[in-house]
Amino acid sequence: MSGHSKWAQIKHKKAHVDAKRGKIFTKIVKEIAVAARLGGGDISGNPRLRQAIDNAKEVNMPQDNIKRAIMKGTGDLPGMSYEETLYEGYGPCGVAILIEALTDNKNRTTPEIRHIMSKHGGNLGDAGCVSWMFTKKGYILVEKSKIDEDSLMAAALEAGAEDMKNDPKEDSYEIISSPEDMIKIKEAIESSGIPVSLDEITMLPSTYITLDETSAEQMLRLVEALEDNDDTQNVYTNFDIPDEIMTKVGR
User: How would DSSP label each residue in 51-71?
Assistant: First the structure.
C-alpha cells in the first residue's frame, strides 16, 4: 500500500498549489455540480457531494462558489451539463492507469487524453482493460506521531473500517473502508481528538509495479500532464516509486 500512500500525499499537497492559480476550483465546481445533479443537494443523503464540498473547503473555495455549483447541479441555476467518462490504459512498464473525467464535449476530451498518453509513453486501452485491477474504497491517513496503532485500530474498526495498515516505511497509518462508511469513520477518529491528515474516495489497485528512476520520471510526467488537463478529475495508477528514487526525481 506504500505506493498509494506516497502518491496520495503528493497529490494532496499539489491541490493546494493548484488552488492558488484557480485550476483546482474549476475541477471541484464540476464535481459538486455533478454530485448534486445525481444525488441531490442535501449532503446528509449524498456522500459524494459531501466529499466534494469538504475538498472545496480544504482549498478555501468561497462559500458562494460552492452554493452556486450545487444550485447548477440541482437545476436551480442554469449551468453546463457534464458527462462522466472513464478512460483506461497503460503507462511506462505496463503501469495501469484509470482516468476519471467530467466533460461537456467528449469529442474534444478523448483525443486530448489520447495525445497526452502517447506523448509520454503511454497508450489508451479498451474499456475494462485495467479497471478490474482497482476497487473503489474510502482511504484515510493518520500520522503515526498522533496516536498509537492499537488505539487507532480499535477506534477505526469500531466505526466500520475494513482494514488498517501499518507500513514501517511510512509515517502514517492507512485505514481502508467502504466509500459509504469513510465519512463516519473520519468523524469517529476526529471526535477522539485525533487529526486525520488525508481522507478521500479513491481506487485502490490489487497489485503494484515498482519503477526505476528513468521510468519514474516518465510516469510522473505522464500523470502530471493528465491531471493538468481541464477535464480530468482523478488519475489512479498502480505504480510504486521507492523513497530514494522519489527524492531524486524531485517530488
Answer: HHHHHHHHTT--HHHHHHHHH
